[in-house]
Amino acid sequence: MDGTFFNEMYHDGAVRTPYARLEDWMRAMPAELRQMKQAEAEALFRRIGITFAVYGEGGDPDRLIPFDMFPRVFSQAEWRKLEHGIKQRARALNAFLMDVYGRGEILRAGRVPAHLVLGNEAYERAVAGIFPARGVYSHIVGVDLVRTGPDEFFVLEDNCRTPSGVSYMLENREIMMRMFPTLFRENRIEPVDGYPDLLRRTLASVAPQKCDREPTIAILTPGHFNSAYYEHSFLADLMGVELVEGPDLFVEGGFVWMRTTEGPKKVDVIYRRVDDAFLDPLCFRPDSMLGVPGLMDVYRSGGVTIASAPGAGVADDKAIYTYVPDMIRFYLGEEPLLQNVPTWQCARPEDLKYVLAHLPELVVKEVHGSGGYGMLVGPRASAEQIEHFRARLLRHPDNYIAQPTLSLSTTPTFVEEGIAPRHVDLRPYALVGERVELVPGGLTRVALTEGSLVVNSSQGGGVKDTWVLAE
């Protein structure tokens, strides 16, 4: 243990088996070589163009995401446990979406409060009654996981709309293989580079019924000002599909068409990276310049698949999150393989009372928040910040949930003074189509600031390569 935190490399005074071959590598690397390799990694990231955008803070919004060279390692047995739990969760979340946009059985049974769904801003009434291909609403499910012990994993949140970060997963591996080829010769590591082909196969498997040929797939991006634009273009290139913006598409004759130099070409599957509100100005925000007028009519008639479906976000709302274990029991008849973090819903008077009395001990999050913003980390907050948040809770309690401050695991991380433990989380990506599939790995995010539990890149976090050892 590192204090009260589980250290994934060292446990009970010994190196844990998955990290056994990394100790010598770590100790044999002099500071000069480490600094040289770190500079090499940063140069590669910059040359390739791997940046993320942060707006509203002044200066250059395009920033290089910090990359840590020390990989995070899972054994095959650890990964299998996670994989089974993630697949179970992805199936249940899709069953929930099909239900709440259909018969609403879980609401009628009282297992999930109807007002949390039907009154949710992510619930899109325009989708009600639509049955998408294979009944899949969320095609890419990013499940954020934290670890607190040797066999203790918890789901922190689900991402059912357009989870980002997979480009970092792939580029982290590419850069590590380029910089440390000997490491990969000495360790049998499961590959992740099959993700683009797997994503393309997944999207092709959910082509609409009206598609009678090899489906044409396109990635719909808001454009190069979007914070994840690099990822959109990166995936389009690796998948061999077109990257389009709203004006590149139009609706005619009950189908979606793409403008090309050779004339219009029908599009069957749209992997959209545009928010619901901007997808179709005739259905959602009329002032949207990012979407395609009439797109929802084609979707409703079965002429195109939108991945993930509009309205999928109602399944990853932080208030809905607390009911995912119930969804697994209700739809699958199984016990959850991965546990939720204990959560208080501030909309409940008894929960709010507890939260207000224990603010210095808790993490409080906005129900619709993301990116590490709009949250209070009680143990690291000042008395003034706590009182400010107390006032916000009293004004709008239904906007917040609260959770205990978890003892997030740490992994060795290269820092200025050498090697030190830093807190991490993990986002694997479940692809849902004809089957639910994952590549063995995910995006490990690391809180580079000493003692920080916030791993988001917009809040100073970095990324690591994630290894799953082959048997």
From TrEMBL:
InterPro entries: ATP-dep_Glu-Cys_Ligase-2, CP_ATPgrasp_2, UCP005522. Signal peptide: none annotated. Residues 71-447 form the Circularly permuted ATP-grasp type domain. Coiled coil: none annotated. This is Uncharacterized conserved protein, circularly permuted ATPgrasp superfamily.
